[in-house]
Amino acid sequence: MNAPFISADAYFTDVMREIGALPMPERTQLSRRSILKIGVAGGAGLVLAFQIGGAGKAMAAAPPVKGEFVPNAFLRVAPSGRILIYSKSPEIGQGIKTAFPLIIAEELDAAWTDVDIEQAPINPAVYGRQSAGGSRSIPQSWDQLRQAGAAARAMLVSAAAKDLRVPVSELTTADSEVIHQASGRKIGYGDLAIKAAAQPVPDVKALKLKTRDQYKLIGRSFGGVDNAGIVTGKPLYGIDLKIPGMVYATYTKCPAVGGKVASANLDAIKKLPGVKDAFVLEGNGLVAELMPGVAILADSTWAAFRAKSALQVKWDESDASKDSWSATVAKAKDLAGRNGNEEIVKTGDFDGAYKGAVKKVEAFYSYPFVAHATMEPMNCTAHFKGDSAEIWAGTQTPERILSSTAKMLGLAENKVTVHQIRAGGGFGRRLVNDYAAEAIAISKQAGGIPVKLTWTREDDMAHDFFRPGGFHSFKAGLDANGKMVALSDHFITFTADGKAPVTGGNIPKEEFPFPMMTDAVLTQTMLPLMTPTGAWRAPRSNTNAFAFQSFLHEVSAAAGRDHVEFLLELLGEARWLVPGNDGALNTGRAAGVIKLAAEKAGWGRSLPKGRGLGMAFYFSHAGHFAETAEVSVDANNKVTVHKVIVVGDIGPIINMSSSINQTEGAVIDGISTMNLELSIEKGRIGEGNFDEYPIMRITGIPEVETHFIQSEYAPTGLGEPALPPVAPAVANAVFMATGKRIRQMPFFKALSTQASA
Amino acid sequence: MITLTVNGRAVEVDDSDPSTPLLWVLRDTLDLVGTKYGCGVGQCGACTVHINNVPMRSCSTPISAAAGQRITTIEGLAKDDGTLTAVQKAWIDLDVAQCGYCQAGQIMTATALLRKNPKPTDEQINTAMFGNLCRCGTYIRIKQAINAASESIAKGGVA
Q1: Are B133 and A695 within 8 A, CB to CB?
Q2: What is the ipTM of this complex?
């Protein structure tokens, strides 16, 4: 098809590659440019040596002041003993601004109370990956950050050895001090700063990193570094920014993506109180950057918002989206019975195995589009200065703002400065920087005045990169022993370019349990879509988990088997699914979390009438998670989730407090979102604000019990993988409680349209 | 001009549009940006301030209605010497925040609750906090922090 504008899919593919968020089989097909960009994260010794090595001083975030020890771009030790650590990636609520410095401080052997933390400047040439996405921050920075801390520690120890005239081998470190045990002498890091700065930078390969039993910080609980600022209302977020000469802006785009401004009452708007200017931007045709719209500039946010409400735009919608969710649902139901025209998995002989099955199970699952709805609406402050540009943004991909702004304005990348600012939520929304492109374009068209663009909540709901809806039509066959011997899924999804599924709407051939099946088929149909989609917390996994893990429970129930035993049989012996790939599913780790979740939940115990216990397992973002939900359902079909038990294996935990918080949040997000939906008609999102998109409130939240199996593997991320099993665990529990099977999100609709079993 | 009393300080603000929401005067005019914009229609609670000790949505309170009233924002909770309230301390001790954007509003609502009812039941906490959304889902810790603050107040802490 010939789209009149370019969807965000290519942008997402690029970003996901760069941040290492693609699953391993896809990640191996990296372009050379991507490899160079993520070289550090991949552990390329040379690049790393360059960053924490001799050139480090030249690459410091700011030039050293007198007497300061600045071994590399990640930290600096002042003669006072204060240690400043730069956290290189954006804080969006995932806790990375605390976790990254903890890793550095651990290897530095610093006392946490001596540490101050700042966000690093955006400079991927120095820091490598500076994004937040795909739960990849920890795994991709683990070696780099540990080596940055260890290199600094080695230099401090060398300096102390000279000072004390003892061999390095007689020295130890603890709490920001070098200690000579034999003589009882100690020197603080601050006192060593000047001399350490004169020490040669050690060879990365020679650095001795701590073993896990030596950790003093990693694995314990630490409060978020911005907590004090948060509880006292300090200006921490992008929306709080004020710079000299700044004006306040709004931007109004066509509610159906792709619409252009035919006319607008700009003269009337310009006369409104507080309004300084109003004009049309043509856009550059990229949904991920700049679509057409009307900018209003005013002397306060309120003056801009008030004027926006008086704005009347006549949209030319000839090329705009006409998407309709209701029409899509009807079409998908129509297609459900047949196979899709594209084969993703074909192994053995599904038809033969299904024909020979003793028992057959068929089911149709669906889920709608949902929004990210971060609490802080999209906003950005930008200043176009003619031959340079400066941008302040809460974003998940600051280095992308750097490159895209440079390209858009025709500037060299070193003429663009990007400041990363704490973001009031990400969930994947802030992987796209459309709001930043709008802000800088408005600043430019306004003649180079600094502009703070703030989206209204309604803008934010209307112009998201939504989680796509989708449909699965399943068939499974059981043999006489209750073993699943045939499996098929016709996956109905969307495409923007007619070639590949939209972002967040795909299914990999490794989807569990296809690799375990002898006779299986997975086909796909792609329906055309213009509505922008994107990465919504655990993209594709959050919906595929619901469909697959619920259907697997349908199968085990039809077989009359215990679901835990059924899952463990499917997983089989302990092995890596893709040998040599530690980002892949490990059936031993999977079995481990399932068994522990079952044990903690008292799996198999008898429950009071009306109560049910459900279990779901899912592997995503290198994390293995099993979750149980205990629910009850009242006479009005209202589901109460009493307790959720989460067992995860993501290797060692960095910060226990934020990890538990993140897990509890994922559970509540999962329960919240299983009851949400967006309507799309005539290309427009039907919901405008929180009254129409009721994310979960404090009432009805479950008890959440979190357990981590801290296995010996390198740590992986936690922003996403705890979420996907929540919805199927609840759906399976509802079945156990009532005999009613939920095959549709939002759950409340599925139950209200179902008669009692 | 009208006079607003914010955190004990009287300030003159432009009232040429008396329907201007208090939220935007706090944020854009008085640089008190701890009070947050989330929805603009009183649905999310991120903009909660105290007006005469009652938690109110500043996004839906016109300055004409706020004039002459005692307004307290998140910046005005701690004492002048920086001593935090029991609620603020509990929010730090329990490490409540994830993204943190909604927490000023949560803290203002929780503070008003505990000043009126220092030992709330779970039900009373739910009722009081119902209007404050947290997209990160920190509700479990919000409840824990309210209970911790309640205990601290029972031992002489200041709400």
Answers
A1: yes
A2: 0.99
